[in-house]
Design brief:
Elements: H1 12-27, E1 53-61, H2 65-72, H3 76-91, E2 96-106, H4 111-127, E3 131-139, E4 149-160, E5 175-180, H5 189-195, E6 202-203, E7 206-207, H6 208-212, H7 220-229, E8 234-237, H8 242-246, E9 255-259, H9 268-277, H10 281-285, E10 292-298, H11 303-309, E11 314-321, E12 326-328
Parallel strand pairs: 2-3, 9-12
Antiparallel strand pairs: 1-4, 2-4, 5-10, 5-11, 6-7, 8-10, 9-11
């Protein structure tokens, strides 16, 4: 028998099936700015209506949370995670997401699984008025085992140059406001999986994997609600490295984010992880979001307005003068 691409482990037909299953749903994310459909070599997006536009881009994956999804055979939330990790990052600069592209790699493609992952991205894009305009599905036998997948994404947003948020307006006396996370989001799962090896164990009345797979929260709507009414000085997306590593990224030299950890509403699943794993409290704050998905820094006068506009937001600290950019007390 002659060798074929399929005999080497790559089934092009399964790739075609994947496209067929997602094509119409992906098209629903498009708007008048998208100038072509899936299948072209490049994706076209027209920009209009801005005076001095700046493009803001971000790329990310979902880490080993994907392993939890694969082991649990629950794939719908992972696409949301992939989009959220990218879109929440560019949101930190006040950018509105314009379009998103995805990359899906695997050992042996299953069009049902691939389509379910992409449908999560579609739903997330719709929630953020963002267009899913392209992607790549790579079947790579020998690089990945059958049943293994990896997912990454790339998001491009836009902001007027004079409206860029970069932390430069932050001053001593500004208040630090927490926006709650929906759980672990997409960080720290190598440690999570080590401490919680049994994904099917019952936790608070349901299988643990359901709690672990709650998708990363999308912050587009609450953040843009704030931007319409408040001069936001800084925004930090609390991802890998937790508050300890991410908040300092927006703090100017000579200032310090003083955060009162007793005010932070830590999810019960994180409390259980810390207890069961005998993990140092500061290690937790340097690895997980600890219930804070995003931090917003505003003037002292605007703090009450943020809490008024967003029902679940709450104050966790203040900006002081200091050489260390963050201090947890």
């Amino acid at each position: 028998m002659n060798n074929t691409y399929k005999s080497a482990g790559v089934d092009k037909e399964e790739g075609y099936k994947t496209v067929d299953k997602i094509k119409s749903a992906v098209a629903e994310t498009h708007n008048k700015n998208v100038l072509n459909n899936l299948g072209s070599f490049g994706a076209f997006y027209e920009i209009a209506g801005y005076k001095n536009p700046v493009l803001v881009s971000g790329t990310d994956g979902v880490g080993t949370k994907l392993k939890v999804a694969l082991d649990s055979k629950k794939y719908d939330s992972i696409g949301v995670d992939c989009f959220a990790m990218c879109a929440n990052d560019i949101l930190c600069h006040g950018a509105k997401p314009l379009f998103f592209l995805d990359y899906l790699a695997c050992g042996k493609l299953d069009s049902d699984i691939a389509a379910e992952i992409v449908m999560g991205m579609v739903n997330a894009c719709k929630d953020n008025n963002c267009a899913l305009i392209g992607g790549e599905t790579a079947e790579m036998p020998g690089m990945y085992q059958p049943g293994d997948y990896d997912v990454a994404g790339f998001c491009v947003g836009i902001v007027e140059k004079d409206q860029i948020i970069d932390g430069s307006k932050i001053k001593a006396g500004c208040k630090i406001i927490a926006l709650p996370s929906s759980g672990f989001h997409s960080n720290g799962f190598s440690l999570v999986r080590k401490i919680f090896p049994n994904l099917n164990e019952e936790f608070e009345g349901k299988p643990l994997y359901e709690t672990l797979l709650v998708p990363t929260k999308l912050y587009y709507n609450p953040i843009h609600k704030l931007l319409e009414e408040i001069d936001v000085h800084g925004i930090a997306h609390i991802t890998g490295g937790g508050l300890i590593e991410n908040v300092p990224r927006i703090i100017p030299e000579g200032l310090c984010a003083k955060i009162d950890t007793s005010k932070i509403k830590v999810p019960t699943v994180m409390q259980e992880l810390e207890k069961r794993g005998d993990i140092d409290h500061m290690e937790m704050f340097g690895t997980f979001n600890m219930g804070v998905g995003m931090v917003v820094v505003v003037s002292e006068d605007a703090a009450h307005k943020v809490i008024e506009l967003l029902d679940d937001a709450y104050e966790i600290g203040v900006i002081t003068e200091g050489t260390e950019k963050i201090e947890l007390i």
